[in-house]
Design goal:
- The chain is built from ten helices and no strands.
- The chain is mostly helical.
Length: about 200
């Protein structure tokens, strides 16, 4: 029998590939090759599943990134580069899911509230890194917005920006940051692997 996590992962896949209208018990069962009994073993119905799916989206595509970056440690610049590397490693999948969730949020109040919380958490984290780097407080929110808008916008253009293109734009934006990044860059490169390659 599939676990609750399996159903939620299947839900994110369906949402990413087919959009919110495809989120039905039948479609999810077909995706996993299971009966409705397995679904109802974990969820009382689609309402509960949707709530769980939104929480799973927030945890996987925000909380997990922040937790991994903070565990990796290092300077604010090293952590920002580590965050970028994690995002770029999942860029195609993540970008498609972001587009689907935002389209869903335009039609559904519960989804919109989740998206607003996710956006606020992401911006708060970027602001905290800017402050730790010694950036001016007055610039913290505008810089967080700059990084975030580049990330969200990269998946909206046609064709979507490659991972390499996105990294170039981030590198340009990071030159506006205060301080000496020389030591943090070397450490981040080792932690990030080869983030400059296109996804």
């Amino acid at each position: 029998m599939a676990s609750r996590q399996d159903w939620l992962e299947a839900g994110l896949t369906v949402l990413s590939e087919e959009g919110a209208p495809a989120l039905t018990v039948e479609r999810l069962c077909g995706r996993l090759g299971l009966t409705k009994g397995s679904f109802y073993h974990h969820f009382a119905g689609m309402t509960g599943f949707r709530t769980g799916l939104l929480a799973h989206f927030a945890a996987e595509y925000t909380g997990r990134y922040i937790d991994e970056v903070e565990r990796s440690g290092g300077s604010p610049f090293a952590r920002l580069e580590r965050l970028l590397a994690l995002i770029l490693a999942e860029e195609g999948e993540r970008s498609r899911l972001e587009i689907s969730v935002r389209a869903w949020a335009a039609q559904d109040g519960e989804v919109r509230a989740t998206q607003e919380r996710v956006d606020a958490l992401r911006l708060d984290y970027l602001r905290s890194l800017w402050r730790e780097a010694g950036g001016a407080e007055a610039d913290a929110l505008p810089m967080a917005r700059l990084f975030y808008l580049v990330l969200i916008g990269a998946g909206q253009v046609a064709p979507p920006m490659t991972a390499g293109d996105l990294r170039e734009v981030y590198e340009l934006a990071m030159r506006l940051a205060p301080g000496d990044r020389t030591r943090s860059r070397g450490r981040a490169a080792g932690a990030a692997g080869t983030p400059g390659t296109d996804a």
